[in-house]
Amino acid sequence: MTALAGKYKKLKDLHPEEAITPGTGLCAGCGGLDGLRLALKELGENVLICNAAGCFTLLSVYPFTPLKGSWLYTTMGAPVPAAQGVRDALDIRLQHRELPDKEDLLVMTVAGDGSSNDIGLGATSAALHRNLDFIYFCYDNEAYGNTGFQLSAASPYGSATQTAPNTEFHPAGTEFFKKDLFEIWKAQKPTYIATVSPREPIDLSNKFAKAKTMSGSRMFICMSPCPTGWGFDPKESDLIAKLAVDTGMFPIKEYFEGQVTHTKRPQRRLPVEKFLQRQKRFRHLFEPECRHDIIENIQSHVDEYWSHYE
Amino acid sequence: MKTDNKIMLTGNKAAAWGARMAQVEYVPAFPITPQTEIVETLAQWFADGTLQGKFTNMDSEHSMFMAAGAAAATGVRVFTASSSQGILHGMESLYTITGWRVPLVLVNVSRALATPITLEPDHNDVMSTRDCGLIQLHAETCQEIFDFILIGHKIAENPQVCLPVLVNMDGFYLSFTREPVLIPDKKTILKFLPLFEPVYPVFQASQPMARASAVFGGSTYSYFKMQHNLAAHHAEKVFNDATAEFSELFGRTYEPAEKFHMDDADFVFVMSNSFATKGKAAVLKLRQQGIKAGLLKIRLFRPFPVAFIAQALCGHERVAVIDQNLAPGMGGITYPEIVSSLYPYENRPKKIVSVIGGLGGKDITESDFMSIIDHMKNSDSKTPLYLFDQEDQRAFQRIQKIANVKKEVSSS
Fold this sequence. Notes:
The complex is a heterodimer. By secondary structure, chain A is of the alpha/beta class. Chain A has helices at residues 31-43, 79-96, 113-119, 121-129, 181-186, 201-212, 227-231, 237-246, 273-276, 292-307, and strands spanning 47-51, 70-73, 106-112, 134-140, 192-196, 217-223, 252-256, 259-264. Helix content of chain A is 32%, strand content 15%. The longest helix of chain B is centred in the middle third of the chain and has 33 residues, at 218-250. The N and C termini of chain B lie far apart (60 Å). Chain B has helices at residues 11-21, 36-47, 61-72, 84-89, 91-100, 124-127, 142-156, 186-192, 218-250, 275-288, 306-313, 335-342, 366-377, 390-402, and strands spanning 5-9, 26-29, 54-57, 79-82, 104-110, 135-138, 164-170, 179-183, 210-211, 257-260, 267-272, 293-298, 300-302, 318-323, 351-356, 385-386. In chain B, 40% of the residues lie in helices and 18% in strands. Chain B has a 6-stranded mixed β-sheet with strand order 10-12-11-14-15-16, sandwiched between helices. A 5-stranded mixed β-sheet of chain B has the order 4-5-7-6-13, sandwiched between helices. A two-stranded antiparallel sheet of chain B has the order 1-8.
């Protein structure tokens, strides 16, 4: 048995209820929203989301909320400490103030990659150290999306962002490789870590179903194709998400009890160009002339990763 | 415990005792000098079962204030403490949680701000929270610290207020000074401050809600800020009601500001916190010399008790507002607040001067108070008066000489 003993085999097995209703202010084709929608189908309504400043802050704009559960907007750097405060308060009330068990909430953080990798990482590390009982959902669109797509530590090498533009002197645009948040979290041995893709709904749902039964820190990174920032037609969001997995650029995996398991291994990895060439943020790698050197660096980086597992 | 047990406590211990007798349930903490004794004491009491609830060691003040606010929004009584750089580091969270409109009490142990880094007190740290929308009570004595924490929870939890209350004390001068403190019995305290029962919905499964949602458009933003402002103003009435009840139960009376020998005073010092004790001693000394001095000590700083202060100061000839803080390029921070409180009144003092002293823990001596009197008397004295004299200059040069400093950059 692999670490993932999935309860779902087919799409129609998935939980029929929605905990996030249509009609949000988020962009058409937002992959992260699709991921959160699937996650909440599984986690249900007795959830409190502590939100960090980012795209998803637009989910609840006064006086509306698309959520059947609760929501608390915090700051960009402290959604996790807010989750700590709520969890602690609920525990105190359950233990000392006769709060019935059915009033308990699953406490969740929803934060973008900027908050997760940069400004909020210290506070998250502290919560992992305390083994905070919560679920962390990072929607990873690989840049500061809500502010107009500036470089974050999750921006991939070779992508153009507003603050790492490609120029004659900086042909790659972003010159660093994406921070490996999965490995950083793993160093602290939380209960569970998983990467998920909205294009792999069964894998995603199984992981949240499993995480729901656990306690402690349960950490998720959701690949979140971003039509406006990445530069593609919203209708292609699923295709882009699929190519991220099929090229091996976004490994779908989980960490549990010391083991890392790839739960959706690409059968035969496609060349990275297949993923890159459909997005405006990588266009400078193909026009006006093809930058084989940069594409080769990206491919080598992906190959190097998989060389440990293939 | 028998009624009104009197024990010797430092300011920090008095703060911990205040939280203990308020039966706080949650303390998120992060250490900073000179506040550490407060959180160490509470950590011990939670660990040994004296207090019921949870003490969580946080990773920064930014995280600590956020956890404090979130727990208050989830329905428990919350207490925390910080100081100086910690207040600045947590400032974003302080603005955020005051906007959440959640009740909690935090103690600030005043310490001057970097740069240069130092440990000793002044009030730039607490003044930095002046505009973030919390309620502020400033304590002169260890007894006031203890009492203000009980009163603070009462104000914070009032349904018409629902705001964090900050209780301020001076680092070192008060935090580490032992004074006798009366600790009332638990039963009477419970009469004044019953166990926390939130009036408004808090986070739990049967009460799903979205809090602190984003707003678009100035009208919606302004609406919430106006509400916040009304609540903060209303806190003055709640303070007066709470202190009246407190006086009845415990026999100690707290007005928004304390009038010390004010009745016939021609010269009034306006002060706050522990240095007011020095001011009071100077007033007594001056009166022995036939100078009619008085002192107004501000306790409630937010909301600013405009009418009370105007009433207290009008009719007196000369007033010196002593700010233990400095806004470089402007002067003292509380001075303009006092002046604007008095402006509408025809019988306002003839002369209102600004004095800046006590920066970084620098003492305000008896001779300083004498020079403030001279300054008030002098018709063409310039304001502000900086309490930095030849002796201070010599002290500075002395250490430079020891280190053989060749040349220091200085502004004329």
